Amino acid sequence: MKDLRKGNCTYILECCDGSLYTGWTNDIEKRLETHNAGTGGKYTRSRLPVRLVHIEYFDTKKEAMSREYAIKHMTRAQKLRLID
User: Fold this and answer.
1) Which of 21, 43, 44, 58 could be bridged to 63 by S-S, CB 3.0 to 4.6 A?
2) Are 31 and 40 in contact (CB under 8 A)?
3) pLDDT tens track for 19-44
4) Which pLDDT score is estimated for 6?
5) What are the Cα distances from residue 77, in Å, to 13, 16, 19, 68?
């Protein structure tokens, strides 16, 4: 995933234990740095390092947050299919 531009996005991280974390941001590079520094989120703090496995960009914060909500309600199998 080389094209990391700024903008509202929903993302999925894979943690070192194989678990998946979903979030949204308007600066994905900064957010990844924050997660891997151990200050990004309570869930990821104890599961470092994390790596970006999926990203979707949106025009608005509301759209990104809605997509985050939808992904968080998917099963693990559905998330894995989305990542593929």
Assistant:
1) 58
2) yes
3) 999 999 999 999 999 999 999 889 99
4) 77
5) 15, 18, 12, 16
In contact, 18 and 77? CB cutoff 8 Å: no
Q: Model-level pTM?
A: 0.91
- The secondary structure element, H or E, covering residue 5 is none
CA gap 37, 26 in Å, rounded: 18
- For 1-84, strand residue ranges (E) read 6-15, 20-27, 50-58
Q: What whole-number distance in Å separates Cα of residue 8 and Cα of residue 42? A: 22
| 46 neighbors 78 (Cβ within 8 angstroms) | no
pLDDT at 70 over 80: yes
What pairing do the DSSP bridges indicate for beta strands 6-15 and 20-27? antiparallel
